[in-house]
Amino acid sequence: MTRLSAHHIALIAEHLVSTPPPTLQEHGHADQPRRRRFAYWQQAERDSFSEPITFFDEDSTRLLGLGQPASRGLQPADAHATTAHDVTSDPAAAPSLAVWLERRFLAYSWLGATWHSDCRFLIRLATTPPLLGHGFSDVFATCGRVRFRDLDAVSLWANAPDRGGQRADTSSTAVLAEATAMGDSVSASSTTPQVVREDQQHQQQQEQQSVQQDQQQEDLQQQDQDDRKDHQQQQQQQQQQQTVLCPALFFLDAQLQNQEAADIWHELRLTALAGTRGGTVTLRVDEQLAFLAASDIDTLRIDAANAPIDTVAFSNVRRLEFALHNTMEAIHGTFEQDSTGRRGSEKSICAMPLVLADCSGAVTISSTACLTVVNAARTTSRPHSPDHPLLLRSITDVSTCRLEGCHIGSFSCFDSIQRLILNNCEFDDVSSLPHVTSLVLRGCRSTGNAGNWQWPNVVMVHQSPTEMAATLQTRRTADRSE
Fold first, then answer.
1. Mean pLDDT of the residues in the chain
2. What's phi and psi for 91, nearest 5 deg?
3. Does the reported pTM lie above 0.70?
4. Tens of pLDDT along 288-310?
5. Residue 74 pLDDT more than 60?
6. How far apart, in Å, are the Cα atoms of 351 and each of 295, 322, 364, 370?
7. H or E element at residue 474
8. Measured between alpha carbons, how far apart are the two ends of the chain, in Å?
9. N or C, which terminus of the chain has less Cβ within 10 Å?
10. Residue 7: how many CB atoms within 10 A of its CB?
11. Cβ of 71: how many Cβ atoms within 10 Å?
């Protein structure tokens, strides 16, 4: 089947803006409430989808013009009929209206809408084959965005397409088993041995009967083969008719209570969400985990502040945000990037940014493209402070380091960094600035024994530590914020 390009989808979206539903355009049942609802559709489609918007069930009901939400007891088989009944009482308009709704759903998806996984219209499309067939699933796989509230929602999504197919397979298997059993019973009854008589006439009859039995057996075997072939063809047709929706992007906020939950997440990622890239995925750890894996995600947020993680395995994660437990001195595990089509080794983690937010303890950072530390870092071994709980012991093989809201007692650990960015940080001593290619300061100040100073907002490139220190000293101003 021909795949629709982005240009064709854009034309569909533009067409839907100016095309009313079939019930309003062809059947003349438009009353004032429906006209107002259609005006709302047009205005909603003109709105910008630049910001991520998640449409919940009641939102999608309103956007797609389905009227009042359908009953919770709605069965998947009644999806299209109920959808048509919600808007018009004309049965002849049901197929064209269902196709129109599916195209409108794709148009909103192409415009950037994010649908909640429990959206009933989306569930109907997952359990009942869309009238657009595989064309719908192909387009949805290029622009569909689905948000899951937890792992249970992902499990429900994974099981939704299997229910209809399971019923069909079971019934087909029952029919085949019944046919086979009938064939076996016929074969058994027809092959009952007869008493061999010495009489020549009876012997001839027995030979004739044996020939007939062989012919019947061959016919039964051929029939059994035909039945099996028909069953296989029926299964293939059912599999082709059953459309498994696979979005282009998914979002998830999951609570991992224990290792079993972490294993369930890993299994769902490899099965239900296989082939779908993760947008923003947040995993909150409640209990110590021996192992945690994640792959093919744009932004991965790991909240391990309440419990540590022994080992991780991250693959093709573009941005990693990690809240470390105070007992985690480093992130142990494997990191793989596949930017060139080939999977690399642990050293290729340099393509993945790392963000440490509100962490505590002591940590050693190595091999990451961009390190960001927020509201946590201290670079001295002074007694533990609740305001600056994280000690950066050393930083190696890091291209860019960004510190936000941190206290810097010493710059010695930043000597191997190429670009250092300090936002709203506190530091006193400028005599030991690191040998960096670029130093960026924004909103930094000094609150130590040297007095309260506001450091200038500057960008210094290819300057020696002495030159950078002189610039800061000459351009500093008195801090009047207090």
1. 69
2. -65, -30
3. no
4. 999 999 999 999 999 888 899 98
5. no
6. 14, 16, 18, 8
7. helix 465-475
8. 68
9. C
10. 8
11. 10
Helices (H), 336-384: none
Q: How many Cα atoms are found within 13 Å in the side-chain-facing hemisphere of 473?
A: 11
Annotated domain spans of the chain:
6-158, 278-478
Higher pLDDT, 353 or 457: 457
CA dist 237 and 104 (Å) reads 27
Return d(Cα 312, Cα 292) in angstroms, integer. 5
Q: In angstroms, rounded to a whole number, what is the distance separating the alpha carbons of residues 441 and 411?
A: 14
Residue 395: CB atoms within 10 Å = 23
Range 361-377 average pLDDT: 69
Residue 291: beta bridge partners?
A: 311
Say if residue 115 is exposed, middle or buried (CB neighbours under 10 Å; 0-12, 13-18, 19+): buried
Residue 28 is given by DSSP the state -
Backbone CA torsion sign across 300, 306, 308, 309: negative
**In the predicted model, is pLDDT for residue 29 greater than 70?**
no
Q: How far is CA 128 from CA 77, 241, 242, 243, 288, in A?
A: 6, 9, 8, 8, 41
| Structure letter (DSSP) for residue 422 | E
- What angle is formed at CA 7 by the lines to CA 3 and CA 13, rounded to 5 degrees? 100
What SS3 class is residue 5? coil
